[in-house]
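ugh ok so i messed up the first submission bc i forgot one of the chains. this is the corrected input, ALL of the components this time, i swear. 786 residues overall. if the numbers dont match what u have on ur side tell me asap before i send this to the collaborators (the ones from the other lab, u know who)
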Amino acid sequence: MTHPGELTRRDLLRRIGLTAVVVGPGAGLLSACATGGGSQPSAAPATTAGGVATSPANPFGVDAKKPLEVTIFSGGYGDAYAKDIHEALYAKKYAGAQIKHNATQNIGTQLRPRFLSGDVPDVVNNSGPEALDLAALAAEGHLADLTALWDAPSADDPAKKVRDTITPAAITNAKLNGKDLVLNYSVSHRALWYNAKLFAAKGWTVPRTWEEFKALGETAKKEGIHLFAYPGQKGPYYQLWNMLYTAAKIGGNQVIVDIDNLVEGAWKSEAVKASLTAWLEIQTGYSDKSYLGLDHTQTQIKHLQNKVLFYPVGSWIENEMAKDKPADFEYAIAPVPSVTAADKMPYEAIQVGVGEVFFVAAKGKNPQGGLEYLRLMLSKEGARGFTEKTKNLTVVNGAAEGLDLPPGLMSAAKAQDAAGANIITDARFEGWYKPLFDYATQQTNSLMGGRISVEEFMDKVQRKADEIKADSSVTKQTRDA
Amino acid sequence: MGERLRKYGFVAGFLAVPVTLYVVFVISPYIQAFQLSLTGWNGISSVVTYVGLDNFARLVRDEVFWQALRTHGITLLVLPLVTIAIALVFAFLLNLGGGSRGAGMAGVGGSAFYKVVFFAPQVLAVAIVGVLWKQIYRPDENGVINGALVKLGMEPVGWMSEPETALWALLAVMVWQAVGFYVVLFSAGMAAIPKDYFEAAMLDGAGRVRLFFTITLPLLRDTLQVAWVYLGIAAFDCFALVNVLTVDAGGPDGATTVLPVEIFKNFFSYSKVGYASAMGVALFFLTITFAVLTLRVTRREKIEL
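and heres the new structure output, hopefully the right one now
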């Protein structure tokens, strides 16, 4: 999963460099080719039949003589996994194929003009704060249909289709405007993260109910430890996620599905209300308002110093903080405690989501090569290499088996086993309606800072959701479950 | 005739390159931004639909737009006033505050050292200034200010996380960063004032305060006017500082947001290129209006030295 907070930090200087471009005279320059004509959107060309015969080993008919261009977002995951693993796999299989590797933190700035002019890279890792608008690209026919990929024989076992070797969430999340167009490659586990060694040393157990949660908060308070904190300055959406997942735990995944589908009154459901109220109580009773002005790194460091017990984040945290982690700190995941006895989902439920988007350019020079590149990424060797390089799991089933995983990832894998079918869904409006997500994040800070009430939060965010629903210029997406 | 042609040819030869660059990289993008502000373009689509003035109608109804204007308005008033006042005092002290020594006027003792100190923030990149002040304003006991407050037994203050203090804390950083440049600018202006004016006034018994208000200030008028325009334009930017320093880029509750930040969000995060361009056009007119107004209002006969 991409971790935007992290990107923000790394991107900072670059982005500031960009200021001049945005606010200054360059604003129009970026779009210089926008108004200079251009063809009508046309249907994506067929991505098979590239002049080379197809075979189970080469299901898309890749022509080894054609070069392949890959653009990678070098954020929290870096780009070594692409350069050293995936591109090497491709080069090995298609000897002599030229691979152009391009790593950037400014996907939008680099690629927007190229999509306009038609000179596009074959594979794009669309991630980071400047990720391209996928719905807009899809509307222009720029995204290759991945159905052929799902149905192709897998790289490891020709008897198995690719779609049977990856987690089903990767297939459901591939849909855009009703078609399978994007590959979400990584898997992350989100809930509360804590220091297992501290709990062992103190003899504390992980709270399962909200009462136990608060009781632990009282105990921790006596030791000068805050029960919970989220970063208000950079990364406040961690708390928005947290409150949404808690609401889903209380009222079932339908709560989030309704919010994603912009259902009337979705933000005013009882489950949302119960979640907001419960978290507001924790924030005001067992946290500290200073965290509302700290960024994610500052907060995560305080977590490592045992000044905070629980931090709401995803499994990438362990790799992110690996350099700063002291020896007596061991990351472990804890499900959010049950808010009521009547919660729809059991205590064990956690959020497991797919992320880190890749797509193949349909109008590129080598779409067959692009699909083949994704197929090799989804091989066991490709996925294992990604996990080794980034300490994050992929959507490929069983690819991490036998790997020496760090304790935090192991605890996440165990938590997923315990959760079984009770997986909290991801909130997709974050990608579909970014303005709504940003607005809800802003209101989260207001709510937790005590400037608005739970009712005001629900009213305001619902109004914004209604506004987006009524806005005909926004392409609407829907999901069934 | 040939003489004249040669002269103009010579001038044109020098102007051709800079004017071309200016037209290509400044004027034409402005024109494009105006054009794009009338469209609903998303940055990718090959079909650009014209929506007339829809973007501007939407802008007027956008709460965030007015919040940004409020920030610009306050900054526009406070930043130039405070910066110029502080810079003038410092420049006067550094150059003339020591009274007359020997042949001319001199600054207070150690003024050469102070000049360097005042100018230091100016050479720091804005991003570094932001990170520096993030540490100073840090809301817990590890912050520079709050560390001191906690030691004195007081509660730490969320400088940037409370809507009441955030904008003022931001303005303090902007003033801190700007003062050094204007100290140097005013110093140069003061150096251009003939020394005999001061000597004559001092012979007549004028003190330092009197010297400042009756001689220095009136004769610095042109420099002050330039400073006012510069600072006013700076008040329309502050993108980098807001991005680094404030809560959730422009928060809390939009208390510190500015148009450039909203343009960035709409362009890069939301792919609303048309709408972002409309904001850019609004910003363009605001800046131009401000500059024209300032130059008009402060226009006056020049004092002949």
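quick check: The longest strand of chain B covers residues 100-101. that seems consistent at least. Chain B touches chain A through 63 residues (CB under 8 Å).
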